[in-house]
Amino acid sequence: MTASVTPEEGQLKLVGPVIRGAEGDLADALITAMEVDNPGARIFIDDRGGYIRINMAERCVVTRASLEDALGKSFPLAQIEPALCGFAGRIDMQEDQVVWFLDRKD
Questions:
Q1: What is the pLDDT of residues 42-56, one digit of tens each?
Q2: Residue 34 burial (10 A CB sphere; 0-12, 13-18, 19+)
Q3: CA pair distance 51, 74, nearest whole angstrom
Q4: pTM for the complete prediction?
Q5: 74 with 82: CB under 8 angstroms?
């Protein structure tokens, strides 16, 4: 379920990418991939023109396969980094998936 409004301050602990506004196609593909990779999770989108904040509560997974399906082309996940102007939470970027999360793994 996608929501175009952000939750009230303090209600949820959100994680996810903040994409440069000029990367709108990538932001749209990330949203689509998040819906596939996190079934039933609520996605919060805050489009400020210059940047697009895409968040969900606690944990967010995006797989390379779902992102490539959404983009319709091959896309190494490392190419997300130049489009990021920030992110919420911690990030674990691997070859086949990116995970934004709250808790430390160590």
A1: 999 999 999 999 999
A2: buried
A3: 24
A4: 0.85
A5: no
Q: Which token pair is 55?
A: 């968040």
Residue appearing with tokens 């196609």: 25
How far does the chain reach from its first CA to its final CA, in angstroms?
A: 31
Domains and CATH numbers, the chain: 2-101 (3.90.56.10)
How do 51-57 and 59-63 pair as beta strands? unpaired
Tens-place pLDDT, residues 6-34: 555 557 889 999 999 998 899 999 999 99
Determine contact, residues 54/21, Cβ cutoff 8 Å: no
Half-sphere exposure of 79 (CA within 13 A, CB side): 12
Residue 91 and residue 20 in contact, taking contact as beta carbons nearer than 8 Å: no
pLDDT of 106 above 90: no
